[in-house]
């Protein structure tokens, strides 16, 4: 059995230090064996925001799997966005941040779903082009027999309340890839609201974390997911901050 802390949408640059300290204390109290961060560490991909995220994450005292979100590439500097979209990300990332992790009986694989531009105006929507799906397929094909969880920023399908938002390009082809390799769960963020849903009858469980710290949440509490993975199944406990403390409830698949 493995216990994973699943966070997303920290958006350093928006929140306050007291909320970050409360979050870190709650995660440490649950003693996860790994921390998975499904992107949007920052508000505007500024170096000082990345530094704050780095300090926060390294203080959690657990192995870290971190993938970028759409807010982690430049938005104000169009030249930087097109020519070097991940330069700030790579400059900021610590050697402690991994693209994949192995725990006893469980492997965790990171997937970059961020896109610098689209043919439509919603450039935040992400993309999973053939090159990324090929790299993911190669990682999934390694025969180690362990249960597998993949983490990215963008959900590949949306619940009814978010159906008008675009999913990343090639989302369905990625779902097929995950299903064909028996991936147990896909951990994502981006929606700033927690939800779990199965991606097809025999597809993975898609788990969306709430925003960990951002005040932009359409009235939904900040929080994180405590995931227990065992024997090919995931149990998700949603931990929400409110009233000066934390509450916990199971997050069932919709
Ligand atoms: Fe976000
Ligand atoms: Fe996002």
Describe this structure in words.
- Helix content is 23%, strand content 26%.
- It has 6 helices and 13 strands.
- The chain has helices at 17-30, 47-58, 78-83, 87-92, 130-140, 171-180, and strands spanning 2-7, 34-38, 64-67, 97-98, 100-103, 106-110, 147-151, 185-188, 195-198, 205-208, 223-230, 233-242, 245-250.
- The strands form 2 sheets. It has a 7-stranded mixed sheet.
- The longest helix has 14 residues, at 17-30.
- The model has no long low-confidence stretch (mean pLDDT 93).
- Bound molecules: fe (ii) ion (FE2) (2 copies).
- The site of one fe (ii) ion (FE2) has 7 residues, from loops.
- The site of one fe (ii) ion has 7 residues, from loops.
Percentage of helical residues? 10-25%
Shape: globular
Total DSSP helices = 6
Rounded radius of gyration (Å): 17 Å
Ligand catalogue = fe (ii) ion
Strand content: 25-35%
The assigned structural class equals: alpha/beta
CATH architecture: 4-Layer Sandwich
Tally of domains: 1
**What is the residue-averaged pLDDT?**
93
User: Could you give the order of strands across the largest sheet?
Assistant: 4-3-2-1-11-12-13
Task: Predict the CATH topology.
Answer: Purple Acid Phosphatase, chain A, domain 2
Key traits:
alpha/beta, seven-stranded mixed β-sheet, six-stranded mixed β-sheet, 6 helices, binds fe (ii) ion
């Amino acid at each position: 059995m493995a216990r994973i802390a699943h966070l997303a949408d920290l958006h350093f640059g928006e929140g306050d230090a007291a909320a970050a300290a409360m979050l870190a204390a709650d995660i440490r109290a649950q003693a996860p064996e790994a921390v998975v961060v499904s992107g949007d560490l920052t508000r505007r991909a500024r170096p000082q925001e990345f530094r704050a995220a780095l300090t926060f994450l390294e203080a959690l005292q657990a192995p870290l799997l971190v993938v970028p979100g759409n807010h982690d590439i430049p938005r104000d500097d169009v030249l930087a966005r097109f020519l070097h979209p991940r330069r700030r990300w790579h400059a900021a990332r610590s050697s402690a941040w991994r693209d994949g992790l192995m725990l006893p009986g469980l492997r965790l694989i990171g997937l970059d779903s961020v896109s610098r531009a689209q043919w439509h105006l919603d450039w935040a929507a992400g993309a999973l082009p053939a090159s990324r799906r090929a790299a993911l397929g190669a990682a999934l094909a390694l025969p180690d027999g362990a249960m597998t969880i993949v983490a990215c920023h963008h959900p590949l399908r949306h619940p009814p309340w978010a159906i008008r938002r675009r999913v990343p390009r090639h989302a369905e082809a990625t779902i097929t890839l995950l299903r064909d390799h028996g991936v147990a769960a896909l951990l994502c963020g981006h929606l700033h609201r927690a939800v779990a849903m199965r991606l097809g009858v025999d597809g993975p469980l898609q788990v969306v974390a709430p925003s960990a710290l951002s005040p932009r949440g359409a009235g939904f509490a900040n929080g994180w997911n405590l995931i227990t993975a065992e024997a090919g199944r995931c149990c998700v406990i949603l931990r929400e901050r409110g009233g000066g403390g934390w509450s916990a409830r199971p997050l069932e698949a919709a």
